[in-house]
Amino acid sequence: MTTIEDLSEGIRAYADLHPKPSNIQFQYGTAGFRTLGVLLESVVFRVGVLAALRSKKLDGKTIGVMITASHNPEQDNGVKLVDPRGEMLEAAWENHATILANAPTTDAFIEVVENLIKLTKIDLAKPANVVYARDTRPTGLTLVAAFQDGLKASGATGRNEDIKTTPVLHYLVRCINSKGTAEAYGEDSEDGYMRKLSGAFKKLVAGKKTHGLLIVDCANGVGAPAAKRLAQFLGDSLPLQLVNTSINTEGALNNACGADFVKTSQRLPPSLSGVLRAGQRACSLDGDADRLIFFYLDERNQFHLLDGDKISALVAAFIVEQVRLAGLEDTIEVGVVQTAYANGASTKYLAERLPVTCVPTGVKHLHHAAEHYSIGVYFEANGHGTVLFSPSAVAALEQRRPSTPAQQTALNHLKNLIDLINQTVGDALSDMLLVEVVLAHKSFSGIEWDALYTDLPNRLVKVVVKDRSVFKTEDAERRLVAPAGLQKKIDELVRKYDGGRAFVRPSGTEDVVRVYAEAILRPQADELAFKVAGLVYDFTGGDPVARPREFL
Ligand code: 16G
Ligand code: MG
């Protein structure tokens, strides 16, 4: 397609097959478009056109598209775009995506496409290349077909990767675009990814003891086939027992299992009771395998969560240690990025050892902040995160001439970590191997890892309000600026609680306001959360009769 007329004609030939539902407004949010899968056909068709345009805009570089709704219920689906280096879509284009998705008719859609081409000065003569994949959801295949129509309508070349994890798709995008350059990221195939990760893992644990069988809860999602393949590559270096692998059982995806279930309900997936033994460690992936939560049962069969904060503490301390052992502490600064949801005890533990930054919720904020450190460790408490090695850190590692065998060993470890850790996005399988490396090096079981610090009791509640857009935050979402006066009331309340901390923010993914509270004692954390929720409810002029009982 080299002219606007050709493109308009192409779109006209397909767009009416995928009309926009009239009563819905779509929004490209923190995780792309996400809603009931059956409502998304028009959106994915248009994302096909958008991905083609994005590729043309970037001189034919390959753009990634992932069809997934991650940890959401099985009937939901979603779609997001991946930029050429494997990172999330540039913010300005999120806006373009929303506009394209909401054009009410084919004519209106063609008009906004033409406007976008003019506005962003796209040369339509450039090629368009797109690689795409989906998770295991039942609506995935139909949506892929609609998406392919979008590619056909715009004359783009598509590469169908079928069922893949979100992090593998990000990996592939980076590999394809960096092929043949000095920054070549790896072989552009899932097996290439498996080889890279497992190869680095084996080098990092050579001569160390891993702690027996690791149970992996695959959330009955796309992580299951990927973990199965990874287990073959790992062989004896890390025995895995995969559970919740039923990707074809209706209703099973993310149902009472997976990282989101474990983190939110703070308990063992019922499917693991009788499977997980006391002292043994296990981990849960989410529905698209970009989030990871560990846990174990103690000798009294009590459940213990090892969440993103615990992963961050374990990994950051290990990397700091290796940098020091390599004699590079003056050259490489390791820093950590968290959000307001990070447990206060984790922030204290980390801040005593290295610089810590707090940013608003959402992976893109953490990712960008982590890029400012030479080695940036970022994890959300919910288990999404990774470690970024900056070009200057990579160069420092390459140039370093070690003067002792111990320095040489630490240097090798750091270089292998670059290969082990997915540099494009949080990756449950890569993070799982990373945790296992550190545990093997430290001879830690889950119990010693958990003992790095003790979580402050905390409570998360959501409040349904009339209009969540009236809630405005500052200071990385830790304080409210609107509605006026509410923050002062929260401050007065928090002061009454020993070790109390609480904050309120509008959700980016649901029509609710979230309240987080922590305190030294469990009942106090609960009480503080509910009292703040009550304040939120009152301030939004809610009907007192309808005021939920637990907020009283
Ligand atoms: C999205 C974000 C996740 C964040 C969550 C918060 C990405 C890829 N995902 O799932 O990072 O923790 O939203 O949800 O950015 P909330 O705004 O509803 O609390
Ligand atoms: Mg996910």
Automatic annotation (TrEMBL):
InterPro entries, sorted: A-D-PHexomutase_a/b/a-I (IPR005844), A-D-PHexomutase_a/b/a-I/II/III (IPR016055), A-D-PHexomutase_C (IPR005843), A-D-PHexomutase_C_sf (IPR036900), A-D-PHexomutase_CS (IPR016066), AMG1_II (IPR049023), AMG1_III (IPR049022), PAGM (IPR016657)
EC number: 5.4.2.3
Secretion signal span: none
Binding site for substrate: E380, A381, N382, R505, P506, S507, G508, T509, R514
Catalytic residue positions: S70
GO molecular function: magnesium ion binding; phosphoacetylglucosamine mutase activity
Cofactor note: Binds 1 Mg(2+) ion per subunit.
Domain Phosphoacetylglucosamine mutase AMG1: start-end pairs: 191-292, 307-443
Enzyme class: isomerase
Superkingdom assignment: Eukaryota
Residues of the Alpha-D-phosphohexomutase alpha/beta/alpha domain: 62-94
Family designation: Belongs to the phosphohexose mutase family.
Protein name: Phosphoacetylglucosamine mutase
Species, as recorded: Sanghuangporus baumii (Phellinus baumii)
